[in-house]
Design brief:
With about 140 residues, this protein is an alpha/beta fold. It has a single domain, classed as Ribose 5-phosphate Isomerase B, Chain: A (3-Layer(aba) Sandwich), CATH 3.40.1400. About 45% of the residues lie in helices and about 15% in strands. The relative contact order is 0.18. It binds D-ribose.
Amino acid sequence: MKIAIGSDHAGYALKGEIVKVIEELGHEVKDVGCDCADSVDYADYGIPAAEMVANGEADRGIVICGTGIGMSISANKVKGIRCALVHDLFTAKATREHNDSNVLAMGERIIGPGIAQEIAKVWLTTEFEGGRHARRIEKISDYEA
Ligand code: RB5
């Protein structure tokens, strides 16, 4: 898969750790920035990463800021995006199985790099279950349209 990834300054260090996981799993990384730990605005990176997923340039996206909240709000403004803010392994799996989330948001100030890497692995390797969950997602898409 092609994975779009974006962070602000507060997620920059964790982004590097997540890039390693994406590459280890054999996926292609499409990094929209930021490129250093200087202060920036999360929407400038969260929206472009989400747009890459929405327009098909990437299959999924991962966005990281201090809390993950600004990034998840930004990504979810892009039509077609279902961004899940995740800080534990249970929801990493559940949001793929039930919500078919196509963008993952995490906060570098909330969890350590080890658990964040495990979350990314689980999220990237778990399939959507479909069935009744597809009907529920369709209701969101219908509203969005
Ligand atoms: C930056 O200080 C911080 O506000 C940002 O990374 C994020 O946590 C916002 O939701």
